[in-house]
# Entry
Amino acid sequence: MDKPKFCVLGAGHGGTAMAAHLAVMGFDVNLWNRSAGRLQPIQQLGAIELLPPDDGGLVGGMGKLCKISTDCEDVVPDADILMVVLPATGHAGVAQRVANCIRDDQMIVLNPGRTGGALAFRNALREAGCKADPLIAETQTFIYASRAVGPAQAKIFRVKNSVPVAAFPSYRTTEVVTALRHAYPQFVPEANVLRTSLDNVAVMFHPAVMLVNAARVEDTHGDFEYYLGGVTPSVAVYLEEVDNERIKVADALGCGAMRVRTWLYRSYDAAGRNLHEAVQANPGYKGIMAPQTLLHRYITEDVPTSLIPMISLGEQYGVEMPTMRSIVHLCSLLMQQDFWEMGRTVKDMGVEGLTVRQLRRLVNEGEAGDA
# Structure
């Protein structure tokens, strides 16, 4: 691809920022969203405005879009790279919508995949009867710290220094990185989608932080800085134990994982003697306020698509996960819904019953083979 054309799927906080920034950088960009109401102001303007540094943004400009639609068939077929930027709970639904209008030579990149995203997306395409075989990839985290701040406005607080990405199967990762680097030199190749999934830092910073700050969120309606105010020294100790369980899962799969403090340093140049200091040293978190309600994707997305699939993977391979299990249990009580029932599992990922050897062969070669 000399200069790929992008289609951003999702017009929330992340999707609007990505679509606008890609357009400002000079790329042709289509935008899709499920709900028409979210798209109407953008369609009227034909663009998304990025707030400039004078208004607190990192980069400003008017990102003019090519096509804006709720119909995938309008915006997907003429794109080279599909950037899926919406809650991971919507991945299966997007797979169903694009199943009949994608091509073999397209790339689908989940931004991010959360835990097991690429595996589950391919499984959902197959269940939807998709005949095409596009290249599917997932990022370890979302490249922007951003917010939608108006009907057709977005603000980018920070662009991460380095974001790992892996293709499924992994031997095609170089193709994805090469294509994405036309726009994003920050993308770097990861070993495979097990690593991008197990280095999913949403497991660390979303459900657990929301849970221990639940009273504060409800009392102040989110009137505090989520990371800088929500991750106190004692909360950081709790998060370190969540991190320990995540590392144990990675060790059981023989693929290793990055400590969250290391991730903060690589992504944001934020270092510290402990997790609390590293979070406080991160300039990218400054000004990011807490959600106004507990009914937020930090719980409704990340419990079923970050925590539960990590628990499902870990327990399939003999890892005990008491701390993560307690978070799921308490969040289910708080939100009065059974996240265990709706969560992504090894079955949804198409890896139920596989040995570690089969799983590793699947993500690296595309086929599990014999045990």
Notes: The first helix runs from residue 13 to 24.
